[in-house]
Amino acid sequence: ITLENVKNITYGDYLEVSANLVNGTTGSYKLNNITGNINNIDLNNLNAGNYTLIVFNDGDENHNPSNATYNFTVAKKTLTLTIEDISDVIYNNTVLINYNLENNIKVSIFKNNELIANKTVNNNFVEFDSLNSGDYNVLVEYLGDENHNYISGNSTFKVLKAESKISLDNVQNITYGDYLEVNVELVNGTSGSYKLNNITGDINNIDLN
């Protein structure tokens, strides 16, 4: 008994095996712990790993039984990871990172080689919020599984500074001796100063009296 086309393959590949028996004889096969009829050897949809295939010729009144052993490997498949260009955003906006794979994805973002945040997801995009301004590096990892190899890719984006906003309310002409109250509105978390002719000071303590 012989088999043709037994060879190493990659997960997802199709492997067609032909069995050669003496005319009129029958046989069976054993693939690891799976058994079946030799005329219907199914070597497809196998998980990655090492396999031992044993084929048996039952023989007949004129032929002795026989067997043959074949070893082959189903290698893990390496997928292609593609990361779309990441758009720069202005501070206080959401960063959107898109890629082509959907399962077992880990996305990490770094600033000055320091890990800022990471997420593990099972979809083809991830979002990050509340990032300070600066340049960021992105590491997208497909973590793999029993049939697929680990792969990774890199990209970059920037968080741009937002425009500063400041407004003063109630600045008006007055008469000497009058009291003038001025209200200052700044972007949250920012600070400022003022200059009145040649006098300077903290914007939170403007003295116009």
Give a description of the structure.
This protein has 209 residues and is mostly beta strands. It contains no helices and 18 strands. It has strands at 2-4, 9-10, 18-20, 27-31, 34-37, 49-57, 66-75, 89-90, 95-98, 105-111, 114-121, 125-128, 134-142, 151-160, 166-169, 183-186, 193-196, 199-202. It has a 5-stranded mixed β-sheet with strand order 2-7-6-4-5, with no helix packed on it. β13 (134-142) and β14 (151-160) form a beta hairpin. The radius of gyration is 36 Å and the shape is rod-shaped. The model has no long low-confidence stretch (mean pLDDT 87).
Helix content: under 10%
Strand arrangement in the largest pleated sheet: 2-7-6-4-5
The proportion of strand residues reads: over 45%
Q: Compute the number of helices.
A: 0
* Major sheet characteristics: 5 strands, mixed
* Radius of gyration from the alpha-carbon trace, in angstroms: 36 Å
Structural class: mainly beta
Question: How far apart are the first and last residues' alpha carbons, in Å?
Answer: 108 Å
The outline comes out as: rod-shaped
Q: Could you give the topology of this structure?
A:
Elements: E1 2-4, E2 9-10, E3 18-20, E4 27-31, E5 34-37, E6 49-57, E7 66-75, E8 89-90, E9 95-98, E10 105-111, E11 114-121, E12 125-128, E13 134-142, E14 151-160, E15 166-169, E16 183-186, E17 193-196, E18 199-202
Parallel strand pairs: 2-7, 8-14
Antiparallel strand pairs: 1-3, 4-5, 4-6, 6-7, 9-12, 10-11, 10-13, 13-14, 15-16, 17-18
Descriptors:
five-stranded mixed β-sheet, mainly beta
